[in-house]
Write a structure and sequence with these properties.
heterodimer, A: 89 residues, mainly alpha, 4% strand, elongated, B: mainly alpha, two-stranded antiparallel sheet, 69% helix
């Protein structure tokens, strides 16, 4: 069973959810936001030969996805340590 | 050495490698067979996951889908949908199922929803998704053989089945993991090398991702501007802004592919093979890095190949390709039926146009964009041979992963879990090998006699996983109050609605003429095409599960304990039976 008492357990879970929510907001904005909903607006801006909305839909969103996962993994490893629930090395 | 011999040598070498790995990585226990012993390094698992994940559809078809069928920007649904799912997988699914620490996805659903019925329903959903998916892979193997090695489709399929049989039956997950790592290396080289050459030729920039945004060699015109111009001249919609049907449809399509990714059992079980919960999180990141290398190259291949193709078809003076002068690769691919022209106006030239009455390129298959790419760009023969080996690696690695998910659901969930709980480990290991052999034979049979629905099956498999397994897993982890009745009703309702929608537009079991509503835009719910409907099925699943759970008895105390247990990493140990 979990080594955390009820209150610590709740706090650990709350912090996890709030981190997740933040990162999923970014996930949503770069793909559905920039790549689909706002694509026409962003296409007014050009970076090199890429219209920005098109770039997010076919390139940028993917790079951000990779960053989000590693950031989550790093932050969660730190959170695990803080609450003393990390696995033994 | 001529191309034919060279292709045999390269493909033969990769097959020898896979068999060598199979002999080296035999499975000695059920734990080896189901989760590769549970000691795979997260980067290795990331690479294996990437190969597991990227199928014949990603390798052979996707660039062509983007370039042709989905007309440029519309193809973004595949690029975002098939990568963004890993973010959900890494945050919402993989770490918790790794902590849970058993062997299969239905096993978790059965435990969390304290019911063998829930487990059985999950097994059925898993088999429906995975079988739908594996047919496409078997077809990919047969097609790759027949095109590159000029053997029969059937013979090609038998050779492919024998190879998979060898390493999957002997090694289970362990054999599959190490062959997938080798297959990843083969397929990524085969994909990127031609792309680098073509990017250099067109833009002078060796990085295709940058090349797509650069100017064409010797001019100050951007490649994408030029592409927009030439496609609109031919009467097509502008490449960079061509929406797939509607914004809502693109939204639903992307979301269906994303949550389908996070609900596909053959991908999820790969994360049971890493030692720790934190490895499951970072391994999803590595998987996406390896996937992104191909997925960010694909749009460049799509745009550049489309431009090259239009250029070739324009002929030297832009008035249409003179039929007598068409290049050798053109003639070669005509033989396979992937390219076809019809000189309608009899002027001895091929006119390519968006207007159906004028257009003389009556057939340009999506797959040609990747398969003929090296020839169009006049690359050396060894590159062409490598593309053949890459296509086979992509199809075989995905087929093996799917077959493992199917066979472990049969031997571990149905046999050991429900029918004969007392069988010994040795007997279970034998049973899993027999189940694997049957699964391969069954998939081979379906590959030889593809049912009517074999076309477009891959996108459908995602819709089915999105509407059945993903919501059940998510509610199992994030809610303590969803009951067994709720979960079962949700899964049945979700997959039922999705199948119903597909059948009503595409025909019952895809038999033509049994569709009771036409497969056209006015008949679609909110203008959402059947392939994109998984997200609606998922919404139905969540809603039904929530409502039913409100009116049924609360889950027992130990289930609430299980949910708390999987939410913190400590005390995971390696994945094991108990």
């Amino acid at each position: 069973m979990s080594p955390l008492n009820e209150e610590q357990g709740k706090e650990y879970w709350r912090r996890n959810l709030s981190l997740m929510l933040k990162l999923l907001t970014i996930w949503f904005i770069v793909s559905y936001g920039f790549g689909i909903i706002l694509v026409d607006v962003l296409n007014q801006i050009k970076i090199g030969g890429y219209q920005l909305g098109f770039w997010f839909a076919q390139q940028g969103s993917i790079y951000v996805f990779v960053g989000l996962i590693f950031y989550y993994a790093k932050k969660m490893a730190a959170l695990d340590k803080e609450f003393g629930v990390e696995e033994d090395e | 050495m001529d191309l034919q011999t060279l292709t045999y040598v390269v493909v033969g070498f990769t097959f020898a490698l896979y068999i060598g790995i199979a002999i080296w990585a035999r499975a000695g226990s059920t734990k080896d067979f189901y989760v590769a012993g549970g000691g795979i390094h997260p980067i290795q698992n990331g690479m294996a996951t990437a190969a597991d994940w990227m199928s014949a559809a990603s390798f052979i078809s996707m660039a062509g889908l983007i370039a042709l069928s989905y007309g440029g920007y519309g193809g973004s649904v595949f690029l975002m949908g098939w990568t963004g799912g890993y973010v959900i997988l890494a945050m919402l699914i993989a770490p918790y199922l790794r902590k849970y620490g058993k062997f299969t996805v239905p096993e978790f659903i059965g435990d969390r929803f304290y019911s063998n019925s829930a487990r059985t329903v999950a097994v059925i959903c898993l088999i429906i998704c995975s079988v739908t998916y594996v047919i496409g892979q078997m077809k990919g193997v047969g097609v790759a053989f027949s095109r590159f090695l000029e053997v029969d489709y059937d013979t090609g399929l038998y050779v492919g089945m024998t190879i998979v049989f060898f390493y999957a039956v002997l090694g289970g997950m362990k054999g599959i993991t190490y062959t997938q790592i080798a297959q990843y290396c083969v397929l990524i080289l085969a994909y990127t090398i031609p792309a680098i050459f073509i990017s250099l030729q067109l833009t002078g920039n060796p990085v295709p991702q940058l090349g797509l945004g650069s100017t064409l060699v010797g001019t100050d015109v951007y490649l994408l501007d030029k592409l927009d111009m030439v496609v609109t001249d031919l009467g097509f919609k502008e490449y960079t802004t061509n929406v797939r049907l509607s914004g809502i449809n693109m939204f639903a399509y992307t979301m269906s592919l994303m949550i389908g990714t996070a609900g596909l059992p053959h991908v999820i079980i790969r994360f049971f093979t890493v030692p720790k919960v934190k490895d499951a999180r970072s391994s999803a990141g590595w998987a996406l890095v390896f996937i992104a290398i191909l997925y960010t190259t694909a749009p460049a291949v799509a745009g550049m190949a489309r431009l090259n193709l239009i250029d070739t078809l324009g002929g030297e003076d832009g008035q249409g390709l003179i039929i007598e002068d068409r290049p050798v690769w053109f003639k070669n691919w005509e033989k396979t039926g992937l390219l076809n022209f019809d000189d309608k106006n009899g002027d001895g030239r091929i006119q390519y146009s968006a207007d159906k009455d004028v257009n003389e390129m009556v057939k340009i298959d999506n797959d040609i964009m990747v398969l003929a790419n090296p020839e169009i760009a006049k690359l050396p023969n060894w590159v062409i041979a490598l593309v053949a080996a890459g296509g086979l690696a992509a199809a075989l690695s995905t087929a093996a992963g799917l077959l493992l998910a199917i066979s472990s659901a049969i031997s571990h969930d149905l046999l050991k879990g429900i029918l004969t709980p007392n069988i010994s480990e040795k007997a279970e290991l034998n049973a899993s090998r027999i189940a694997m052999a049957f699964a391969i034979a069954g998939a081979g049979y379906l590959g030889l006699n593809p049912p009517g629905f074999a076309a477009g099956t891959v996108a459908l498999a995602f819709g089915l996983a999105a509407s059945s397994i993903f919501p059940a897993l998510m509610m199992g982890i994030f809610s303590k109050s969803i009951t067994k009745e709720g979960a079962i009703a949700g899964m049945v309702g979700g997959i039922g609605v999705t199948l119903f929608y597909v059948f009503q537009h595409k025909g019952i079991m895809f038999i033509p003429d049994t569709a009771f509503l036409g497969d056209t835009l006015p008949n679609w719910f909110l203008g959402i095409e059947p392939n994109a409907f998984g997200v609606v099925g998922a919404a139905v699943n969540f809603t039904v599960a929530f409502v039913v759970s409100r009116v049924t008895a609360e889950p027992p105390q130990e289930v609430q304990g299980l949910v708390e247990h999987i939410r913190v990493p400590v005390g995971s140990g390696e994945a094991n039976a108990h």
